[in-house]
């Protein structure tokens, strides 16, 4: 089906009722395309890169306005004589159907650029039922309408009208003896050769209509049928003729694809439109009722978790509506915002609110139960999970706020984040704090908690630079003495133990493996997976192993930003312990009780024999199904998010979530 395209050049001229305004000031401008034009647009209106002013796109019930950015001085006093002005513009109305279109557009002179409460369709985004016809509108509009509306006394479905404060089309004869408004219209092919006779003339004392300062521009609206409204060029002048528009420089209209035959649509469309109106009305009613009654999703089984649940209203106000200025970071599962709970400064609590997309209800009850259980964890080296809030499609977790942010900012983003270099004493203190936290959740609490995402970006620093293990969004818990269940594999490349990839079963020792990668990371100042000088992936554990095998070379792995200022015995202890925790065989890895004894010096670290440390982490990862492409994504991802999937034998899909969580 062909499109109906109306492309015309319009001249608008007004002659003052008597003499021109005192001073005879002249304002002129001309746009042959609107690229870089100083216009104010709102609604659906936009200017394309090639300079085409699009007032409405091909959707129903849209509004669009475009106005010259500054008001024009039409008279020198309220009710004073209005100066002559002239305008010329090239416009196009494109309908998806040849037989009918959807309303139109108007050239407007108005006291304001905004039209609050204005309706689309026949009101052309200018007026509504209540204010239509009010003298207080101070509005002049030349409508270019493509739909007949008997409510506004339209004469047919293709007409030009001059509207004073309302949308009743006015048609009068031309009278050259009195002040008048002339509207002349011609096809674009005639160029700037304006016809001798205007299409429409109207006599009107504009001094009783227009404000002394008014804006000029365009308004457009669609109704229940798709139409597009464009302005290609525009010129305007006060106290003189409008400048000629350079037709050759006008932007091109976009191409229009085929549409269904209008005869079919003529039958189907009214039915579909009526059904859509009913559906939209029903949906709007349902949404309003749901918003009033269910601002949050709260099911009966959640009542037992009441003390741990926050209201969305409180979290919304705490984060100032989740504004970007409060954004602390973003990761694979969502964004984290800083918030302040409480209205009184004396009782305010700073929190970190994490918004997680969660469309599925499957397993939600069990997940919330685990969140609430984890919220009862109390340890000086844990970032406390305070509670949660649930809405449709969204879960919000509320954490204790850590003012110094995450550890990875101090290791990798010092310049960007303006962070100082952590000295070795601070790093060793953080290491022991995280180890103490892992020992607590593994063995000292009422249940076993497997964190499943131990890494530098999930270690937060409080005001005294104590390390706090945070982000329990992936954590799982089970009773002491029972075996953990197989789950989807989640975590970050470089921290995943080989047996986790192979079996899908997270355990205390998979957390120990990740802790080993963390030890090497904080000591070496390098990520667990990186790119070497030959653009190949390199595992940090392999790199440290190479230096361990070379006599006297282990010190070369220490973070150069420490400038050699560290306790050699402590550094070598941490490096060797990191290798031991990263061993692919679980029977060689220590548990967190042993790790704490090694770090405290109460138990000496066993000697690492070369025969026990002959593995290659890179080879193990590739053997378990990690291809080089997956690892290259992680090595370049930084703290951004990565969600990829690789084959892992019989366990199906493995999801990796990295950074910023």
Question: Low-confidence stretches at least 5 residues in length (pLDDT < 50)?
Answer: 16-25, 152-159, 163-177, 625-661
Query: Which sheet architecture does the biggest sheet show?
Result: 8 strands, antiparallel
CATH top-level class of the largest domain = Mainly Alpha
State the CATH architecture of the largest domain: Orthogonal Bundle
Q: How would you classify the helix and strand content by structural class? A: alpha+beta
**Which range does the strand content fall in?**
15-25%
Total of domains? 4
- Mean model confidence by pLDDT: 78
**What would the principal axes of the Cα set say about the shape?**
elongated
CATH-assigned fold name of the largest domain: Transferase(Phosphotransferase), domain 1
Supply the number of helical segments: 13
For the record, give the distance between the C-alpha atoms at the N and C termini, rounded to a whole number: 52 Å
Q: Which range best describes the helical content: under 10%, 10-25%, 25-40%, 40-55%, 55-70% or over 70%? A: 10-25%
CATH superfamily of the largest domain: Transferase(Phosphotransferase) domain 1
Pfam families: Lectin_legB, Pkinase
Protein name: non-specific serine/threonine protein kinase
GO molecular function: ATP binding; carbohydrate binding; protein serine/threonine kinase activity
Membrane topology: Single-pass type I membrane protein
């Amino acid at each position: 089906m062909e499109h109906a395209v109306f492309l015309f050049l319009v001249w608008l001229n007004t002659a003052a009722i008597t003499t021109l305004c005192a001073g005879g000031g002249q304002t002129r401008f001309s746009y042959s395309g609107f690229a870089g034009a100083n216009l104010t647009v709102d609604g659906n209106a936009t200017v394309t890169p090639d300079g085409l002013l699009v007032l409405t796109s091909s959707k129903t019930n849209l509004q669009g306005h475009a106005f010259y950015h500054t008001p024009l001085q039409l008279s020198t006093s309220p009710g004073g004589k209005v100066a002559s002005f002239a305008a010329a513009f090239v416009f196009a109305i494109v309908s998806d159907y040849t037989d009918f279109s959807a309303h139109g557009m108007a050239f407007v002179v108005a006291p304001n650029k905004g039209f609050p409460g204005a309706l689309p369709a026949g009101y052309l985004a200018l007026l509504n039922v209540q204010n239509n016809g009010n003298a207080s509108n101070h509005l002049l509009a030349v409508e270019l309408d493509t739909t007949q509306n008997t409510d506004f006394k339209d004469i047919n479905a293709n007409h030009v009208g001059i509207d004073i404060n309302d949308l009743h089309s006015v048609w009068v004869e031309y009278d050259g003896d009195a002040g008048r408004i002339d509207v002349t219209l011609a096809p674009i092919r005639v160029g700037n050769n304006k016809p001798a006779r205007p299409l429409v003339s109207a006599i009107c004392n504009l001094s009783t209509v227009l404000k002394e300062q008014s804006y000029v521009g365009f308004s457009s609206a669609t109704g229940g049928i798709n139409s597009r409204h464009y302005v290609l060029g525009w010129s305007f002048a006060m106290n003189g003729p409008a400048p000629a528009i350079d037709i050759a420089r006008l932007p091109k209209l976009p191409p229009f694809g085929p549409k269904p035959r209008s005869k079919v649509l003529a039958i189907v469309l009214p039915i579909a439109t009526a059904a859509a109106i009913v559906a939209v009305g029903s949906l709007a009613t349902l949404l309003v009722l749901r918003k009033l009654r269910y601002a949050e999703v709260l099911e009966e089984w959640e009542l037992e978790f009441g003390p741990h649940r926050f209201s969305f209203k409180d979290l919304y106000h705490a984060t100032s509506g989740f504004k970007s200025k409060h954004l602390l970071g973003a990761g694979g599962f969502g964004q984290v915002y800083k918030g302040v709970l409480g209205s009184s400064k004396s009782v305010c609590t700073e929190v970190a609110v994490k918004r997680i997309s969660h469309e599925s209800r499957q397993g939600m009850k069990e997940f919330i139960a685990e969140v609430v259980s984890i919220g009862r964890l109390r340890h000086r080296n844990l970032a406390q999970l305070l509670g949660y809030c649930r809405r449709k499609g969204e879960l919000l977790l509320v954490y204790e706020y850590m003012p110094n942010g995450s550890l990875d900012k101090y290791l990798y983003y010092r310049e960007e984040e303006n962070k100082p270099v952590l000295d070795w004493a601070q790093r060793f203190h953080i290491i022991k704090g995280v180890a103490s936290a892992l020992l607590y959740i593994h063995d000292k609490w009422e249940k076993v908690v497997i964190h499943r995402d131990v890494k530098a970006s999930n270690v937060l620093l409080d005001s005294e630079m104590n390390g706090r293990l945070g982000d329990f969004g992936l954590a799982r818990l089970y009773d002491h003495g029972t075996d953990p269940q197989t789950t989807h594999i989640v975590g970050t490349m470089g921290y995943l133990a080989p047996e986790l990839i192979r079996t899908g079963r997270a355990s205390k020792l998979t957390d120990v493996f990740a802790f080993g990668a963390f030890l090497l990371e904080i000591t070496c100042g390098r990520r667990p997976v990186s790119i070497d000088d030959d653009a190949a992936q390199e595992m940090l554990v392999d790199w440290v192993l190479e230096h361990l095998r070379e006599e006297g070379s282990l010190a070369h792995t220490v973070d150069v930003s420490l400038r050699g200022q560290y306790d050699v015995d402590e550094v070598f202890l941490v490096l060797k312990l990191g290798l031991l925790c990263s061993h692919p065989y679980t029977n060689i890895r220590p548990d967190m009780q042993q790790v704490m004894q090694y770090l405290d010096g109460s138990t000496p670290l066993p000697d690492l024999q070369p025969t026990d440390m002959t593995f290659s982490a890179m080879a193990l990862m590739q053997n378990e199904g990690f291809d080089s492409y997956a690892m290259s994504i992680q090595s370049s991802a930084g703290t951004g998010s990565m969600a990829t999937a690789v084959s892992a034998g019989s366990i199906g899909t493995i999801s990796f979530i990295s950074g910023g969580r």
